[in-house]
Amino acid sequence: MASETAISLKVERKPKLSETVVASIRKQLQAGEIQPGQKLPTEGQLTETFGVSRTVIREALAKLAADGLVEPRQGAGVFVTEHISTMFGTLAADMGSKDSIALNVLEVRLAIEIESAGLAAIRRNAAQEAAIQEAFFEFERLLLNSEPTGPADLAFHRAIASATNNPFYVEMLDVLGRRAIPCDVTSPWSTELAQSDLYQRGLQGEHLVILNAIISGDAESAREAMRAHLTASQQRYRERLHARQSFYAESVKAAATE
């Protein structure tokens, strides 16, 4: 089968300014640098601190308020929620549960998709190769437009499974369904980690290595690329789960001494 030229990507989407502000304030809240009940700096002060417009600051504060981390008080300013330490502890426990589900799913996917990628490199036809590429570029389009990439991610892996020409590989992914892709922000198994632009960009880089190996018809490289992709995802979730558990333990300890 004729091989096509390997695909490369160079375009990256920068995070929105308000996302940067939200991430910075969240980090300070979690580190205890801003205490529960404390008043945040004024809009003008935050504008100077972050070097952004008042519109950006208002958008960031609205997001933090929607998450229950801060509350505006008419005529007084914006204050950190009083029970924020307990809130973060509850959030950590909830996220930890989702991370555990993601790890279990990834373990199953490792058993299925490594060989799936190898077989796809050998057995794919032109239409199946095109379907894999289309899913790859759809992921890229959604990423650049800040839209949920989960459906395109699943379509990419499903197209590889289909290219094995063994229907049971597709059937196994279909059984997992939306649980297979924790980066789908619309999924109940989605996590904060998977929703970050940096995480998504890393996934797409790993997808690129898999795609190029399949295009080249290199079965062994395709297997190794898929193994690296899923193993890297496992490691990211293990690290996140450990961090969440540690943070939750510290939150419980802090709450007990209040």
Provide a descriptive summary of the structure in words.
There is one protein chain. The chain is mainly alpha-helical and 258 residues long. It contains nine helices and two strands. Strand 1 (70-73) and strand 2 form a beta hairpin. Helix 4 runs parallel beside helix 8, helix 6 (150-162) runs antiparallel to helix 7 and helix 8 (197-215) packs antiparallel against helix 9 (219-257). The longest helix is centred in the middle third of the chain and has 40 residues, at 84-123. It is elongated and about 65 Å long. It starts with 16 loop residues before the first helix and ends with a helix.
Quickly describe the structure.
The protein has helices at 17-30, 43-50, 54-66, 84-123, 126-144, 150-162, 167-176, 197-215, 219-257, and strands spanning 70-73, 77-80. It has 258 residues and is mainly α.
Summary keywords:
258 residues, mainly alpha, two-stranded antiparallel sheet, 9 helices, 68% helix, elongated
Measured by DSSP, the beta-strand proportion falls in under 5%
User: How would the global form be characterised?
Assistant: elongated
**Percent helix:** 55-70%
Number of E-state strands: 2
| Oligomer status | single chain
Low-confidence stretches: 85-96, 185-193
* Computed CA radius of gyration, to the nearest angstrom: 22 Å
> Number of DSSP helices?
9
Strand pairing plus helix content: what structural class?
mainly alpha
